[in-house]
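Hi there,

I know you've been waiting on this one. I reran it after we fixed the sequence typo, so this is the corrected version. Both the input and the resulting structure follow.
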Amino acid sequence: MCSLLAFNVFMFRNIVDRALYYPMRYPQGEWSAQSAAGAQDIWLTSADGIRLNAWWFGKPEAHFATLFLHGNAGNVTHRIDHAEALKKAGSAVLVLDYRGYGKSSGHPSETGFYLDANAGYDALLRLGYPSTRIILHGESIGTAVAVELASKRPCAGLILESPFASLSKMAATVIPVLGPLFVHGFDTEGKIEKVHAPVLIVHGDADEIVPFSQGQSVFAAACKPKQFWRVPHAGHNDLLWVAGGEYPTRLRTFYDSLARTP
């Protein structure tokens, strides 16, 4: 009976993993857009030896550099609009492709994502940005990765875009009662109290994938100083476009507040 239960849990976890990660590997994606976007390839190696690809959107006059940790689908080629909005707001940007995404080797996993984010952080240090000038910006599942990184390493600020409280709480919205019993990890709500940097949370109030209430829960658990920006009528995948010109304006205001932080 025990071995059967263990097998069923194992199979359930495999199903969850397949549902959680939607990597788009090279050559899938809009790779021809790299040159026009002015993005430079940067190659990294994670602590466990995985070779990772990232795009560097340099901005020589920028005080800050942002490590952008994207969501669970697509690859770096689908984050050009985000990178351009962050540059417009005033930050240089490094967009990392996790293991198994784009040109990065390996296979997706929670632990692997954390190692990949650390490699991206180290890359910004090598590019000449000290921790006081590094902003961590996560999108969807990338918010959990950003919080994990910010809880372990110092940063100037943390931006969470459409964050979920935890994987188990997300599972409860899909499979009530049973889901949280078997699905764990990416515990943003539990870890964010360990982050001691200014936080900006951005969430669309029409998010059809991550309930708006989960963004509010993450905000409630965060330490001060913190800000919450509710984007009216924005869903999970169209927040950037629904927010429009207000998006870089809001981020620029947040950046400016970080520059004034002692």
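Quick highlight: Residues 2-20 form the longest helix (19 residues).

Best,
R. S.
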